[in-house]
Design brief:
Layout: E1 5-10, H1 12-18, H2 24-29, H3 39-45, E2 47-54, H4 60-68, H5 83-102, E3 107-108, H6 112-120, E4 125-131, H7 141-149, E5 151-155, H8 184-196, E6 199-201, H9 207-216, E7 222-223, H10 240-248, E8 252-255, H11 259-262, H12 274-288, E9 293-295, H13 314-323, H14 328-346
Helix pairs in contact: 1-5, 6-14, 12-13
Bound molecules: zinc ion.
Length: 348
């Protein structure tokens, strides 16, 4: 039995954009054994769709520094990006997403109905997501263009500051309550997203920004790829009050597979058991209820447990949840239905 799943976060478009090979579309469509997600592996695993993040990368050295420093303890934020640089990389990844759609590899979905139609047609259902709003100008002109291209989910910040807000530094044994809240432009962005049906993603945002979104938005609060701070006290994870606020709003949290956000010691080690992922799901269910827990792998953007390996390992996690005693109905909610429900209530 293959349980279909929908994933709250992947960085596959960045992997393709950065790849040296010219045939970037074929890398995804025909597949390779590189990275975590391509079309053949996604389909064989039962991946029905997911959020395809467009992440304007920091300078290469900056990204390498983040990846190479598991105890990134100094807590400094990477430098801010220029609008022009962010637009260049964002448009590069958006172009790849749209080219993949034109090639028939996936469907960019603008509504919950389109998600359901794509899945019924056996097409990989993609949500156009930006991880960091750096490519959006404060007059919101590029917002209109990106929205028209299919943008339906915005992480206001990655782990840095921008014109709209401030993200959490990657700090272990630390609280996400670091730094200022949203700017006036950030508050306006939340209002616009609320009106237009663009989901706000709280992963990476600091606590003050989280509170601002909660105060302004009328929609469910969502963290697409974050875990439980009480188990792994990393700034990227959610504290008790944040989980309570998400539950109260009818929101959802996607389980992040990144080992450094799973492990109680905060280390990025491939030798991390699936049991620890189950422990986070247990805690998320306790905090959020059965409607509030989903998946948010961070595939192609983070080191995941070796037992998972890549997208073809997701069925092992779902089997582990069944073996743990969850009924099939609950596992199907976690795997797919909770994402569909919250998207219906945010993007419409
Ligand atoms: Zn992320």
């Amino acid at each position: 039995m293959t349980i279909p799943f929908f994933d709250g976060h992947n960085d596959t478009l960045l992997r393709l954009l950065d790849h040296a090979r010219a045939d970037k579309l074929d890398l995804f469509i025909k597949g390779s054994q590189e990275g975590h997600i391509d079309l053949p592996r996604a389909r064989s695993a039962g991946m029905a769709g997911g959020f395809f993040a467009i992440f304007p990368p920091p300078l290469k050295a900056g990204l390498a520094q983040v990846a190479a420093a598991p105890d990134y303890a100094k807590g400094q934020l990477p430098p801010q990006l220029d609008l022009a640089d962010a637009q260049k990389s964002t448009l590069g990844m958006a172009a790849l997403l749209l080219q993949l759609e034109r090639a028939g590899a996936l469907s960019v979905c603008r509504t919950a109905a389109e998600l359901k139609n794509a899945m019924a047609d056996d097409s990989l259902a993609a949500i156009f997501h930006i991880e960091g709003a750096e490519a959006i100008d404060t007059e919101f002109q590029s917002f209109e263009v990106l929205y028209a291209a299919g943008l339906r989910s915005i992480g206001i910040t990655w782990s840095r500051a921008n014109a709209f807000g401030t993200g959490v530094p990657f700090r272990f044994n630390a609280d996400p309550d670091i730094g200022p809240g949203l700017t006036d432009a950030g508050k306006e962005l939340v209002r616009i997203c609320d009106q237009r049906g663009v989901m706000i993603d709280l992963s990476h945002l600091n606590a003050a920004g989280f509170r601002d979104v909660a105060a302004i938005s009328s929609k469910p609060l969502v963290a697409t790829h974050s875990n439980v701070h009480a188990i792994c006290p990393c700034t990227r994870n959610l504290t008790d009050w944040q989980l309570a606020a998400i539950r109260e709003s009818g929101g959802v949290v996607g389980l992040n597979f990144a080992t450094g956000f799973l492990r109680p010691d905060g280390r990025f080690l491939a030798d991390t058991p699936i049991d620890l992922m189950v422990r986070h799901v247990d805690a998320l269910l306790e905090a959020l209820g059965e409607d509030g827990v989903a998946l948010g792998s961070d595939f192609d953007g983070a080191m995941v447990p070796a037992e998972i390996g890549d997208v073809t390992g997701v069925p092992k996690l779902l089997q582990a949840l069944l073996d743990h005693g969850y009924g099939e109905q609950l596992v199907r909610k976690i795997a797919l239905e909770n994402w569909l429900s919250v998207l219906e209530r945010t993007i419409g």
